[in-house]
Specification:
By secondary structure, this protein is mainly α. It has one domain (about 10-95). About 40% of the residues lie in helices and about 0% in strands. The longest helix is centred in the C-terminal third of the chain and has 17 residues, at about 80-95.
Length: about 100
């Protein structure tokens, strides 16, 4: 299973292979990050992989952190966002 640094499963993403070959392949420089982040890199990827040198957020003692809470898809409800964080956190911790 291809798990992104944030705990998403790459092949389940609607943009995988169309607009994104996977965050590790492009070193976190996702198409959406170019639009909202000055660094043009996913802040979750940047923190976990670049700064902390983890494979993903699963080993981080702060999981889920403020970045997880603040970085949300504007097209989903607050409830769906919370559910996504819970699912991804569980997935990341269980794959360590």
């Amino acid at each position: 299973m291809d798990i992104a640094a944030c705990g998403l499963i790459c092949y389940e993403c609607e943009f995988f292979e169309q607009q994104c070959p996977g965050c590790y392949e492009i070193k976190g420089k996702t198409f959406w990050a170019e639009e909202i982040m000055p660094e043009k890199i996913c802040p979750i990827f940047d923190c976990s992989v670049n700064d902390k040198e983890y494979q993903n957020c699963g080993k981080c003692s702060k999981l889920p952190c403020n970045i997880f809470n603040e970085l949300r898809d504007p097209n989903i409800s607050d409830e769906d966002h919370e559910k996504s964080i819970q699912d991804r956190t569980l997935r990341l911790k269980s794959n360590q």
